[in-house]
Specification:
Two copies of one chain form a homodimer.
Chain A: H1 10-30, H2 52-62, E1 73-77, E2 82-86, H3 96-102, E3 108-110, H4 131-144, E4 153-158, H5 159-171, E5 180-184, H6 191-197, E6 204-209, E7 219-224, E8 243-248, E9 267-271, H7 272-275, E10 283-288, H8 291-305, H9 310-328, H10 336-358, E11 369-371, E12 376-378
Parallel strand pairs in A: 5-6, 5-7, 7-8, 8-9
Antiparallel strand pairs in A: 1-2, 4-10, 9-10, 11-12
């Protein structure tokens, strides 16, 4: 969720532009005969890491443009023609290489007669949650040590974006006199206000930067940690009572930040798009302590989409199983997290080199921390 | 969508109860050694079609209860013990038998490295719509002749429920002084008001029965045809200007009603749960004439769930392909529509027999109509 649809300051835009370029260069370096998903082949594979412009020129061949969001686009002159770089989103296809080498182990097969029912586990609180997926979520968190799953209810969502809305619904009151304030410390994921206010709900309302929030009454504070867009580990900043915390932990995985301890919050949101790279599945999950909150979240998903794709849940279960197996029995690429951490490290090296060369921007410096999962100390290397 | 979460009048409840019973009997008749999906075997297969009570007793073994919705449940004394019949939903698992006999043809295989991106067709208006699925939607409508697809945009949704909300968002104005009224002729799908009002949107608001609607200003009229819950073919009923029509055609398939002609409305909603029986996929689609409406619907799905499960779309493409093939080259069960129409016919026969026997209720009588797809005349046999 947190990688998507950002509206950036100019500085953010440019830094992201560089990050994008570096990722494209890496892609070219890794996959010399790489063909992009839309069928066009990369025909421009000269040494691209000399200037920003030549890096950008690579983008013309590889970038999957999404022309509907022009506000975040940038036009540059590459190697002789106009080049449009769309900067408003990321896409976790960089993990494809890991998944390719897992072969059949991560392949899902679903016969036509399976999974026809609305129901996955009719008797459970979250009746549309596939039990196999729930089991693998718990195993994965235990393996990585990034979140406490004991005494939690799992609610599955169509991406963590849906779960964010489910949380807002669950924490609001139908009979409230005025909408509940929703805040987050700036800079925050720019889709938060858009999603929160798109229907002009009478239940909740975006109230901006948590640091300057001083309204009386109950409120919801979103804590995105590591944060999107700046990558810092975060805690609640509002210093007054009446707040309910929601932790968006989409990036709390060892490829992005050292795992210091198992997160132990009341409401925690995760997504496969950031953990395993499967954005196309649209699968997220929430770990929720309070049964009434969990029930209301389930109710929202019922009303919003009558449950969550079973096919993607079954596939997600298989994928998590393979991730866990890769942690226990690493291949030549290591576990998924070894592979992805290495990838992020390389990209940050290239990004820092490119930014140094440009002399125009600065990048945040992160302090190293000890990671209980990777058993080494390293500085955060944010996905965003 | 239209089969779900209904709050019924007492009469509706009882009629549905009988329908449920008959379906259970049929299930037992069809599948003597049938095992229900949750692993419990049916151990009670005596001749069940003698009294309502004995029919209900069958339900104890087969019914997948969903205890979270007690408002629509009914407790009866079956053959010696308490029996809880949950009447608040249907589930299209009755089509499983057709899909079983298609074998590998309808099986989907997705390797772990596929469909990782957010994007399905980055350059198109609906960037998260799988092109293969779009192609099969058009082929299916052409084969069945139930909807015009020319000069329409296809928008995919996480079930038609999400598309219903996308339509409301698309047809409302962010800067409107007051919420736009949403109406439908009673009796209407009872989830409509719940979904419409659950977030107390300032953009739109449920305004009840379309027949008694007399408020000035723009409005949205939902036309569900065949209608849920009563099965009648419908047209718009509001006789004043300023209305935009939305056609929910979830049940406009030859197993439920004669296909009189290709529907040719501005906004038409469909879902695989009713056409092929794959409710667990959570896949619906809209055929939309106006490009601006389609764009706003896409925007809603972006904000709501950042697209729609690729896995389920790919599976839906495969399933539609097999349905079309079954129309061109019918097997011993006929096409899916032959099979399903026969199933519905049998169920309605049994339902009418049971209702006659009870002497307590009446069922609607439908006039036969000519079906251009099945090439015969028959009376509607609604799924709800």
């Amino acid at each position: 969720m947190a990688m998507f649809f950002n509206i950036f300051s100019l500085k953010n835009l440019l830094v992201l532009s560089l990050a994008l370029n570096v990722s494209l260069v890496l892609r070219v370096l890794y996959e010399k005969d790489f063909e992009v998903n839309n069928g066009r082949s990369v025909d421009n594979q000269k040494d691209a890491l000399t200037t920003t412009d030549s890096v950008l020129s690579e983008a013309r061949a590889t970038q999957r443009a999404r022309p509907s969001m022009p506000s975040s686009s940038s036009t540059v002159d590459g190697d002789g023609g106009d080049t449009i770089i769309n900067l408003d989103h990321g896409d976790p296809t960089m993990y494809e290489r890991f998944w390719q080498q897992t072969g059949d182990k991560s392949t899902i097969v679903i016969p036509g007669w399976q999974s026809m029912s609305y129901f996955s586990d009719a008797g459970s609180l979250c009746w549309f949650l596939e039990p196999e997926f729930a089991k693998e979520i718990i195993r994965l968190h235990k393996t990585v040590g990034n979140a406490v799953t004991e005494d939690r209810y799992i609610v599955v969502g169509t991406g963590s974006t849906q779960l964010y809305q489910a949380v807002l619904y669950a924490l609001s009151h139908q009979d409230a006199v005025e909408p509940r304030s929703v805040v987050s410390a700036a800079p925050y994921y720019s889709s938060y206000p858009l999603i929160t206010d798109c229907l002009k709900s009478g239940l909740y309302k975006w109230a901006g930067d948590a640091r300057s929030f001083n309204k009386e009454g109950p409120f919801i504070e979103l804590v995105t940690s590591p944060n999107n867009p700046d990558g810092y580990v975060r805690q609640s900043v509002v210093n007054k009572s009446g707040g309910i915390l929601v932790h968006d932990l989409a990036y709390y995985w060892p490829q992005y930040t050292p795992i210091a301890s198992a997160a132990n919050h009341d409401i925690m949101l995760f997504t496969v798009s950031k953990s395993t790279g499967h954005a196309g599945m649209r699968i997220g999950w929430a770990l929720v302590k309070d049964v009434e909150v969990a029930k209301k979240m389930v109710k929202f998903v019922e009303l919003n989409t009558i449950g969550v794709s079973k096919d993607s849940q079954l596939r997600a279960a298989k994928v998590l199983q393979v991730v866990i197996h890769s942690c226990q029995y690493p291949t030549s690429l290591g576990s998924l997290f070894d592979f992805a951490a290495h990838l992020m490290e390389e990209r940050w090296k290239l990004l820092r080199a490119a930014v140094r060369q440009s002399g125009l921007f600065t990048l945040p410096e992160f302090s190293p921390g000890s990671c209980s999962f990777l058993n080494r100390s390293f500085a955060p290397q944010p996905g965003k």
